[in-house]
């Protein structure tokens, strides 16, 4: 939902505590994935994703607003872009062929739905071979 950047141990604990309190009223919800796309644009893709349009996952968007508000209250920078529900499939390095762009744009599939039961806060460590991800903490959503 949000990239937090470099945080101190105190900031991480404040966000863990704040998120735990903020989402107490958020119940589990269904997430819809129904399209493939690219950021920042299909003409110049840097990220290929599977997701949905903003507004198609209202509960997820509500949750992202809670996360954003908490992070801003903890002194983190407010996100300028609108929240776009997605899962990153891959990153593009260099130029991508127009034929592959067309294939991405024309990819269709049966919509996927799944139940979101928790929020995960992840850490990424960059290295020359790519990013390594690890879980910092889990915040369960009420049933």
Task: Give a brief outline of the structure.
By secondary structure, the protein is α+β, with helices and mostly antiparallel strands. The protein has helices at residues 9-22, 58-73, 98-105, and strands spanning 29-33, 35-39, 47-51, 86-91, 112-116, 118-127, 130-140.
Describe the structure.
- This protein has 143 residues and is α+β, with helices and mostly antiparallel strands.
- The chain has a domain of 92 residues: Cyclic Phosphodiesterase, Chain: A (Alpha-Beta Complex).
- 27% of the residues lie in helices and 33% in strands.
- The protein is built from 3 helices and 7 strands.
- The protein has a 3-stranded antiparallel β-sheet, with no helix packed on it. It has a two-stranded antiparallel ribbon with strand order 1-5. A two-stranded antiparallel sheet has the order 6-7.
- A hairpin with a 2-residue loop joins strand 6 and strand 7.
- Helix 1 packs across helix 2.
- The longest helix has 16 residues.
- The chain starts with 8 loop residues before the first helix and ends with a strand.
- The model has no long low-confidence stretch (mean pLDDT 90).
